[in-house]
Amino acid sequence: MKQVFGVLGDPIAHSISPVMHNAAFEALGMDCTYHAFRVEKQNLGDAIKGAKAMGFGGLNLTVPLKENAIGLIETDPLAARIGAVNTIDFKDGIKGYNTDGIGARKTLEDAGVDIEDKNVLVLGAGGAARAIAFTFTEAGAKVNIANRTPERAMTLAAEVGKVNGFGLDVLDRCLEDTDILINTTTVGMDPNIGDCIVNAEQMHSDLTVFDIVYNPLKTRLLQEAEAAGATPVTGIMMLVYQGAEAFRIWTGVEPPVDVMKKAAMEALRL
Ligand code: ATR
C-alpha cells in the first residue's frame, strides 16, 4: 500500500507541493503519494493526530497553519525559535521542523554564495524573514533587518539577538556594507511587477541580490540588480529546497532536486 504524505493549509488549492513531491517519489520509484488537504486552524491538532494515526509518512504545513503548530507538537529548537513549523515527521512521535531558512541557505549555496561571516540585509519582518534571520544567524551570517514598519524589524532583531532592525529610511547607509540582500516581502510579486524596494543606484557590483518572490521569476528587484552589475538569485529554488529538505527528513533519501525544480517550474508555468 502506498505511503501517504500531505500538505495542510487554508487555502490550499494552489499549492505546488503535491506535484513537486509526487515527481520526486516517481523519479525514485518510491511507493508513496502526496496530497493537499484544506484544514481550518481550529482543526489542525486533530488533523495532525489523524495523519499520525493513519500512518502518514509526513506532512507539510503552509499558510496560515505554520505558527499554529507551535505548542501543539514537539518542535526542534530552530523551528521553536522561528515560531513556525512547515514540516512534520512521524517516525519518532510527532516532531515539527522548519526548512524555510535552510531552503534559502541552500539556494545561495547553489548559486555559489557562502553566507558565513557575510553581511546579510533582510528586507521584511514576516514569516519568511523570521526563518531566514534565525537560520542565517545560526549559520554564522551577520544579519540586519529592514522593514516598512520599523518596530517589527526591531522586535525580530531583538528576538534573534546580535542583529539590528530598522526602517527602510536608512537602507542606503546599510547597503554599502551589505554582501547579500534578500527580499522576503511580497513587493514585486505578480500583478505588481513594477515595484521594488531597492533600485540599481543603491546597489553595488559586489552585491548578491536574492528575491524570494518567484512569480515572476525575474522580478524588478533582480532587474535592478543586473543593471547594477550585482549577482541576481531567483526565488524558485527556495521553494524547491524547502520541499527537498522536508523530503530528506521524512525519507532519509537524497532528494532529486532537479526533478522537483522541473515539476515546480512546469506547475507554475515559469
Ligand atoms: P510572510 O509571513 O509571508 O513573510 P507577512 O507576515 O505578511 O508575510 O510579511 C510581509 C512582509 O512584507 C512584511 O515585512 C511587510 O511589511 P510590514 O511589516 O510593514 O507590513 C512587507 N511588505 C508588504 N508589502 C509591502 C510594501 N508595499 N512595501 C514594503 N514592505 C511591504
TrEMBL record:
Start and end residues of each SDH C-terminal domain: 236-265
Annotated binding of NADP(+), by residue: G124, A125, G126, G127, A128, N147, R148, T149, P150, E151, R152, I212, G235
Reaction catalysed by this enzyme: shikimate + NADP(+) = 3-dehydroshikimate + NADPH + H(+)
MF (Gene Ontology): NADP binding; shikimate 3-dehydrogenase (NADP+) activity
Residue positions of the active site: K66 (proton acceptor)
Domain of life: Archaea
Keyword NADP on entry: yes
Stored PANTHER family: BIFUNCTIONAL 3-DEHYDROQUINATE DEHYDRATASE_SHIKIMATE DEHYDROGENASE, CHLOROPLASTIC, SHIKIMATE DEHYDROGENASE
The name this protein goes by in its record: Shikimate dehydrogenase (NADP(+))
Lineage: Archaea, Methanobacteriati, Methanobacteriota, Stenosarchaea group, Methanomicrobia
Gene name tied to this protein: aroE
